[in-house]
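Narrative of accomplishments. A recurring question from our advisory board has been how the design workflow behaves on a single, concrete structure rather than in aggregate. To address it, we present the structure tokens for one chain from the evaluation set, followed by the sequence designed for it. No filtering or post-editing was applied between the two.
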């Protein structure tokens, strides 16, 4: 390496924190070539893996490909379960029936509409309906990289995107036919566009932010927490307030106008939730740590990552207080991105519980960027920066579980019910919303007939119920066998009256617990011909 080449390389490395083009790979490349003796020959390095990633497009593309293949590998290993069958069932319906359902559910329409058209093209197989979340999740990693790269450094963007990539927590949502991967993607894109208005104000970007934020709250109601976070950033950080205050308010007004048709329904669902309550429990103080644990894979990783955040924040505030460094607007903004919604949702949950892992998925993105920023703040040398980055990424990688278990063996449970179901057998399902997942695994033809689902199940002597009173209202004749299929039945049958009645009046001959969640009971009626 010539003296001139060394000077250029040193200059470029010194600019790493501010450049749009250099990141961890370029730093490693320089160290390997310029060390004495070189770790790899210079002529090999010039054609190597490292030079490939210095090109602006290739590293984001590599991040997307890595995420895509990691997330598609085990895509259909787990049964369609929990709220997925419900989502797929209504997404396959016509749009008129879909919107009728949405009027009585806490689900904004965007993901349902996207999945509706996706199903028309690719069907309702497990892999098909989960493919969209894989795309959304993979794009989120790219948007994280660009957010860090453009507004802090390439290394920050790379580290944050890899922390997200190796997050088991976010892999769960990539493998779930639900809105949460879309919610995370739109949240990240929203912050990326929000930061872009600060760096370069234009009408086009203001309109773009208004549209993205409208899509965000059309995907999940809690997108309003991110918009509130952007308002706080604009009001709290002087640099943001001076450069984009009025223009940002125009964007907020645009989002409000675009969301205006849905506001009455939002207000109605909010009042209904307040009046009826929710199944989500109020948090305890330790839940602040538990949620960070979800973001971080394991307790060991959690301690390391939280230590980086606490130390980085303290170091930054100390140096700001001592006037050793100027205010760094984007660093402060990323800190607010994590802290405000995280603690605000936690505090609100003491009044109205909402501090649930899936609802905080948009906060996890701020968490990973915050960790990467903390490494940047704590590192006085390139070596320390690389060491902390590799350590952090490494601990997430070795604790990462790509084949995430949703702990629902729905198909196994339904197949057991089918094996127990003989002519004259009555199947009772509780809670009633299990009918969607049950019919998906029991008979796909019945599941697809969304206008007659309940009628067709009843015709096959399968009865979804939510109370003993509802069960007693059926005119069930000549019962010889009863199969009771349940998962968390006490959510609707709080005193367990159905199970008590069955245990008291009939002989239980079999009880099977399917992987902790589903329970199948088989009863023999000692008095055939008697109705329930």
């Amino acid at each position: 390496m010539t003296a001139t080449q060394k000077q250029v390389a040193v200059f470029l490395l010194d600019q790493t924190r501010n450049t749009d083009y250099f990141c961890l790979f370029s730093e490693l490349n320089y160290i390997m070539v310029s060390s004495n003796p070189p770790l790899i020959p210079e002529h090999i390095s010039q054609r190597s893996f490292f030079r490939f990633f210095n090109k602006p497009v290739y590293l984001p593309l590599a991040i997307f490909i890595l995420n895509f293949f990691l997330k598609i590998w085990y895509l259909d290993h787990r049964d369609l379960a929990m709220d997925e069958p419900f989502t797929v069932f209504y997404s396959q319906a016509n749009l008129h029936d879909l919107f009728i359902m949405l009027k009585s559910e806490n689900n904004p329409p965007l993901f349902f509409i996207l999945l509706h058209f996706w199903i028309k093209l690719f069907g309702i197989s497990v892999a098909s309906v989960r493919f969209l979340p894989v795309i959304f999740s993979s794009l989120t990693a790219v948007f994280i990289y660009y957010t860090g790269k453009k507004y802090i450094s390439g290394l920050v963007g790379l580290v944050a995107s890899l922390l997200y990539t190796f997050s088991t927590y976010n892999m769960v949502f990539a493998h779930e036919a639900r809105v949460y991967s879309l919610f995370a993607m739109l949240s990240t894109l929203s912050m990326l566009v929000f930061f872009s208005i600060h760096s370069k104000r234009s009408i086009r970007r203001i309109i773009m932010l208004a549209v993205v934020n409208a899509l965000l709250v059309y995907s999940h109601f809690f997108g309003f927490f991110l918009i509130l976070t952007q308002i706080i950033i604009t009001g709290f950080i002087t640099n943001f307030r001076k450069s984009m205050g009025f223009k940002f308010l125009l964007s907020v007004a645009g989002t409000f106008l675009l969301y205006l048709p849905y506001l009455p329904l939002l207000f109605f669902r909010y009042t209904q939730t307040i009046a009826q309550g929710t199944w989500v429990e109020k948090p305890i103080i330790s839940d602040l740590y538990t949620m960070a644990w979800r973001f971080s894979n394991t307790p060991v990783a959690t301690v390391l990552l939280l230590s980086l955040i606490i130390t980085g924040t303290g170091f930054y505030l100390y140096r700001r207080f001592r006037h050793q460094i100027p205010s760094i607007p984007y660093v402060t903004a990323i800190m607010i991105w994590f802290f405000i919604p995280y603690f605000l949702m936690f505090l609100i949950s003491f009044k109205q519980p909402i501090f649930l892992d899936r609802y905080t998925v948009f906060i996890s993105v701020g968490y990973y960027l915050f960790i990467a920023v903390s490494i940047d703040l704590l590192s006085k040398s390139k070596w320390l920066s690389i060491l902390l980055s590799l350590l952090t990424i490494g601990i997430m990688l070795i604790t990462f579980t790509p084949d995430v278990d949703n702990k629902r063996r729905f198909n196994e449970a339904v197949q057991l019910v089918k094996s127990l179901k003989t002519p004259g057998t009555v199947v009772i399902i509780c809670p009633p919303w299990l009918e969607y997942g049950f019919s998906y695994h029991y008979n796909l033809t019945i599941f697809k007939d969304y206008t007659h689902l309940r009628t067709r199940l009843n015709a096959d002597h399968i009865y979804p119920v939510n109370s003993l009173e509802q069960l007693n209202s059926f005119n069930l004749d000549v019962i010889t066998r009863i199969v009771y299929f349940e998962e968390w039945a006490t959510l609707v049958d709080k005193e367990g009256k159905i199970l008590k009645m069955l245990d008291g009046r009939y002989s239980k001959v079999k009880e099977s617990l399917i992987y902790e969640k589903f329970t199948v009971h088989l009863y023999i009626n000692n008095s055939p011909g008697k109705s329930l």
